[in-house]
Specification:
It is a single chain. The chain is α+β, with helices and mostly antiparallel strands. It has two domains: 47 residues, no CATH class; 100 residues, Immunoglobulin-like (Sandwich). It is 21% helix and 38% strand. It contains two helices and eight strands. A hairpin with a 6-residue loop joins β7 and β8. The longest helix is centred in the first third of the chain and has 19 residues. It starts with a helix and ends with a strand.
């Protein structure tokens, strides 16, 4: 288990090198790299330590009917949530069921009592008729780490 944790930490540290905070010449400063690495390590610790798990309340339905749109129009969908637990809420990963939907997650932990959003944009080009899409959320939550957000839209 320690080997797996060590390997995950190494992968996370390497992944932390990818950041949007670049200097004008395109290089990442050592300080920004260090901050990104620390942030990734903290997120990983929170996800591994079940004592740091918290609870989440979805303020909106986890299913949204987005109605009808014209083909080619983007569809923006937002799911609001609240950290109802005693520990910071870390949204570790948010993925979509297909490439036509691009989700966006909060990068910083959501403190107890605070609210946050998960947003997604659906590309309706070439997607005529009824579309049902899922967004998969992985967070340090109990009783389950996994959450499924869904929406549907009719493309005309």
């Amino acid at each position: 288990m320690k080997r797996v944790s060590g390997f995950l930490m190494a992968v996370l540290l390497l992944a932390a090198c990818k950041t949007s905070d670049k200097k004008k010449n395109g290089e990442i400063s050592p300080e920004d790299r260090r901050k990104d690495s620390l942030r990734m390590v903290e997120k990983q610790k929170a996800m591994e330590d079940t004592a740091n798990y918290t609870t989440i309340q979805w303020l909106d339905s986890t299913f949204k009917n987005m109605g009808k749109v014209k083909e080619g129009d983007p569809v923006d969908v937002t799911f609001r949530f609240k950290n109802t637990g005693d520990h910071p809420l870390v949204i570790a990963n948010v993925t979509a069921g297909c490439g036509c939907t691009v989700p966006e997650k909060p990068e910083e932990p959501i403190m107890p009592g605070a609210e946050g959003t998960i947003k997604a944009v659906f590309n309706s080009s070439g997607r005529k008729d009824l579309n049902k899409k899922d967004i998969f959320v992985d967070a340090n939550t109990k009783p389950s780490r996994s959450h499924i957000l869904s929406f549907q839209v009719v493309v005309e």
